[in-house]
Amino acid sequence: LNIHQQILKAKKEGQKLLAILLDPDKIVWENLDHLLQKINQSPATHIFVGGSIVESTILEDLIAQLKQNTNLPVVIFPGNPSQISPDADAILFLSLLSGRNPDYLIEYQVQAAPILKKTNLEVISTGYILIESGNETAVARVSKTKPLSREDLDLALATAQAGEMLGNKLIYLEAGSGAKNAVPLEMIQLIAQNINIPVIVGGGIVDLHGIQKAYNAGADLVVIGTAFENDNHFFEL
Ligand code: 1GP
């Protein structure tokens, strides 16, 4: 099974998935062994790699280390088309559906397509929906787009449904890295109940309780970045 098929299988069987997000720019390379050990001891099922601004050489170095030292699938979560490395297993081919910046809706995908064609990466088309978080996050700043209101559940649902109708294989509900407020649980619930494709939720989830609440609301895969970055013992609590 490829990674998309594994996610579908987990959803069908009610098994919840967990991704650790590593931003290559924030890796303390002297502590890499410790980090890799903690990843291997964690309940993570996937490693996402990417960030708003990353140099491709650091990305490649990190992916090489992860492939050598863990057994988890490594999925690129790109901020822009320079963040492609053939050594990962898959890439989330994101389209920022909440925004109206054509670069993030289609231009970067056009630039990335010929590069991806030269790799064996599994390309997973993903509708990426940024939700207002109470603070300005890097995604909003770098993409120059306005997140969807936390209150407008109907708009968030219509956006997710449009993504599904466009053929996206996953929907990613994103509050943004370091978000003050995570994606509202009612929003996760409404969307998870009204689309058929798997739902990824991330941004601003800072404790294990928050992960569980997102799962209970219907998230199929939860992404943890900052909390694990700040405390590699996060999953041991
Ligand atoms: C960001 O959803 C991810 O793209 C993770 O966010 O860093 O807040 O965990 P955090």
How would you describe the overall organization of this protein?
This protein is globular. It has a single domain (3-230), classed as FMN-linked oxidoreductases (TIM Barrel), CATH 3.20.20. Strands 1-2-3-4-5-6-7-8 form an eight-stranded parallel barrel, surrounded by six helices. The chain is of the alpha/beta class. It is built from nine helices and eight strands. The protein has helices spanning 3-13, 32-41, 56-69, 102-117, 138-143, 153-165, 185-194, 208-217, 226-230, and strands at residues 17-22, 46-49, 74-76, 90-96, 122-130, 170-174, 199-202, 221-224. Helix 6 (153-165) packs parallel to helix 7 and helix 7 (185-194) runs parallel beside helix 8. The structure holds SN-glycerol-1-phosphate. SN-glycerol-1-phosphate is lined by residues 21, 174, 177-179, 202-205, 223-227. SN-glycerol-1-phosphate (1GP) is lined by residues 21, 174, 177-179, 202-205, 223-227.
